[in-house]
Structure formats: structure tokens, C-alpha cells
Design a protein that fits this description.
By secondary structure, the chain is α/β, with parallel strands linked by helices. Helices cover about 40% and strands about 20% of the residues. It is globular and about 60 Å long.
Length: about 260
């Protein structure tokens, strides 16, 4: 036994969940899922892999449900995944070796490859897209405040070499839906962040989101980090990522952050 709990939060992931769970066969001692009341076959498919499924309310901050799954994990180590991620064969073996060695580290950063419109993005700051997903049970916790947050680890954190494979978008339409959802959430965070602030602060915030942040992001990802090596996919990614800043701010102004 590897003494490892694989934990997930899911919502309408019937197209991804089987691929994700199949990749951890022989690695996970248990699979724990907090499902946000899916309306498709996610729960049914997950149970065919022996997963322990807890049906809960779907949350805009998805990390709330992720933490529910983490809290229910019984093994000594936790590997937190998203349904659209796949543990590569190399990563699977590396995790097994780490658990056997019982290292001094309490958590590990995993490099992640992101699949975008037909290819893995290897430039533009997209690889290695390090994320903290593997840690001792009780030593890692999600802040549950932001969609892009990392687990906070109590103790030393190391790095693994083999990649976690991420397939977040079936096509551009699927990408746009997620992009728009994150922008709504970002608009809400802007509203909360500048509530009660001075007029000057609000002006600087507007200027930052409309001009500084998008320009800096595009230059950094596409030019400095050579996103142009990833062909047209690299350009689309850098452009849309930069565009999220002014779009989020406009949503905030128009009060379309619900």
C-alpha cells in the first residue's frame, strides 16, 4: 500500500473523470471526491473506480470543496487533483518513491504541462507551471479565497521532476466559458478590494487594470518568456490572458460580476 489519498472536487466532469482516475490506479489507496451536485454522470463514473463521493453544494470558489475532500482523506499522504488532470507514468513512480523514502519535506511542488488548443504550452511562462498538490495529510491547507491559490504547507517544501498533465479545455469555446467565469470572480474581488478606498486609489486601480496589467502580462508571457515559440496557440494564450484584466474591470464597473 502507498498510504496515499487522491482527493478531488468535481462538478459535471463526466468527460474527464475516468481518464483522471484511471491514471492513479495502483497509486491511490483511496479516492475521495467532494462533488458539487453534478447534473451529469460524474458521480456514477467515479464510483466505478471505488471513489468515496460526498455530494455537497457547488461553490464559486472551488477550493472550498477541494478542502472538504482533503479533510476527509485518511491516508498519510494527499495528492490533490483536478478532474482534467492526468498523473503521468513518470510522476506516478516518483510519488511512490517519495512515499517510500519518507523525506523531510512535508509537501512538494509538481511541474505541470498545460494542453491548449492542440499542444502543450512549453514557453510563455507556462512550463514548468509549478503547483503544490502533494503533501502530508494535515500539513497542507487551501486558503479558499482565490481560484488560482496554492496550498499552504506547514514545513519544508520540495520539488518533483515529472510532470502532471493538464487538459483544461476541450476547445476554444470551453476555454472561453472558463475564462469568462474567472473574469466574473475577478470583478467581484476588485469590488471587495477597493471598497471604502480613496478616489485616488480607485483611479490607480482603474489605470492598472485597463492599461498597465494587460500590457505587462502580454510583454512578459509573449516576448520575455518567448510565448511566440508556441506558435499561434502561444499568441492566443498571451492575448486572452492579458485581456482578462480590462474585461474584469469593465465587469466590475458595469456590475456584471454575479
Amino acid at each position: 500500500m502507498n498510504n496515499l489519498s487522491v482527493v478531488l472536487a468535481t462538478y459535471n466532469e463526466e468527460e474527464n473523470i475516468a481518464r483522471c482516475l484511471k491514471a492513479v490506479e495502483g497509486l491511490a489507496d483511496e479516492i475521495v471526491i467532494a462533488d458539487g451536485t453534478s447534473k451529469d454522470r460524474t458521480v456514477e463514473i467515479a464510483k466505478t473506480f471505488g471513489a468515496k463521493v460526498f455530494v455537497v453544494k457547488n461553490q464559486q470558489i472551488f477550493h472550498i470543496n477541494k478542502q472538504i475532500a482533503i479533510d476527509k482523506a485518511a491516508s498519510r499522504w494527499v495528492l490533490q487533483l483536478d478532474a482534467d488532470e492526468v498523473v503521468s507514468k513518470g510522476l506516478k513512480e516518483e510519488i511512490k518513491d517519495i512515499i517510500k523514502k519518507d523525506p523531510e519535506e512535508n509537501g512538494f511542488w509538481l511541474p505541470r504541462k498545460n494542453y491548449f488548443l492542440g499542444r502543450f504550452l512549453m514557453k510563455g511562462g507556462q512550463y514548468p507551471d509549478y503547483t503544490v498538490r502533494f503533501y502530508r495529510n494535515g500539513k497542507g491547507r487551501l486558503p479558499q479565497k482565490d481560484v488560482h491559490e496554492q496550498a499552504v504547507i506547514d514545513g519544508k517544501v520540495g520539488y518533483l521532476k515529472n510532470a502532471l498533465l493538464h487538459y483544461p479545455y476541450k476547445n476554444f469555446n470551453a476555454y472561453f466559458i472558463k475564462w469568462d467565469r474567472y473574469n466574473r470572480l475577478s470583478a467581484r474581488l476588485i469590488r471587495e478590494d477597493i471598497r471604502g478606498k480613496s478616489r485616488l486609489t480607485k483611479i490607480f486601480t482603474a489605470f492598472g487594470y485597463l492599461y498597465i496589467k494587460p500590457a505587462h502580462w502580454f510583454f512578459t508571457t509573449y516576448i520575455r518568456h518567448k510565448g511566440f515559440y508556441d506558435s499561434w496557440q502561444g499568441f492566443v494564450f498571451s492575448f486572452m490572458s492579458a485581456l482578462r484584466f480590462p474585461v474584469s474591470y469593465v465587469r466590475y464597473i458595469l456590475k456584471k460580476d454575479k
